[in-house]
Amino acid sequence: MGFSDYRTALVTGASSGIGAATVRRLRAEGLEVHALARDHQRLARLAAETGCRVCEVDVNDLTALTRLARSAEFDVLVNNAGQSRRSNIRDTAPDDVDAMVDVNLRAVLHLTRLVVPDMAKRDRGHVVNVSSIAGHYAFGENATTFNSSVAYHATKAGIHSLSQQLRVDLYGTRVRVTEIAPGRVATSIFQNQNAADNPDARFVGAFETLQSDDIADAIAFAVGAPERMNVAMIEVVPTFQVVGELRFASRSEAARLKEMRSGADNA
Ligand SMILES: NC(=O)c1ccc[n+]([C@@H]2O[C@H](COP(=O)([O-])OP(=O)(O)OC[C@H]3O[C@@H](n4cnc5c(N)ncnc54)[C@H](OP(=O)(O)O)[C@@H]3O)[C@@H](O)[C@H]2O)c1
Questions:
Q1: Tens-digit pLDDT profile for residues 176-200
Q2: Of 3, 51, 128, 244, which residue is 20 to 30 A from 261 by alpha carbon distance?
């Protein structure tokens, strides 16, 4: 299995950030790519640029997802659409809990249920689930600095768990499952205006982050791997981001550490 064995892909959350970068990457590998999101204009621009097919669908719309799943034989499914809300459990709004559970978890389960059985029948396919390091670790500074919440962490932990169990359900088939767990990427999901205004922004505030292309490359690595190889999980974090907590060296901190190191070398 590899790019040459796959013909058609479905990427959710394709109108911006990691999803749009993944559409570009998979198109460059020659796949027919169905790009799903709600924003008509962004999808139209992406289609004009890459030749992808536009699926203007809300992932909460189960009827539309069902129709879409029946419309093509998808070899690659990238479950990437996601939302985040900033809150602490003391002040979490009911709508925010629902939005995150619906988009980040419920829709992924439904789309997986709709697309994967057919992959298993054809004995060919690859499911890529974009989770987050938030699904693996608790972050001390989360709500204040990183615009996230307990509900976001819980839904991403769900994606981790469903990815593991899906591999059990697919045991004996050539359908592969990959979980991609990014650290901080410069996109607009965490209400980062910096990235929303400038998709090439290297920094979120003072923090040097990953780019969407970095995650698209990780996805391409997993999908393009040889048939015998299932890349089960990739955790990708910025070099300056400590894993297991959310400690992050800022630009000034990095400069200070560099000065300290060169001082030590010269001593
Ligand atoms: N950026 C990070 O630091 C980071 C870190 C870890 C994990 N992630 C994960 O990466 C994934 C992609 O996020 P991103 O960072 O690339 O942010 P982004 O640029 O905000 O992308 C989110 C995408 O999800 C789509 N989406 C949201 N609600 C939807 C709905 N109801 N129906 C259909 N599409 C919907 C959005 O499109 P429309 O608004 O057009 O529908 C958009 O294309 C998410 O699952 C996120 O949790 C991101």
A1: 999 999 998 989 887 554 454 455 5
A2: 244
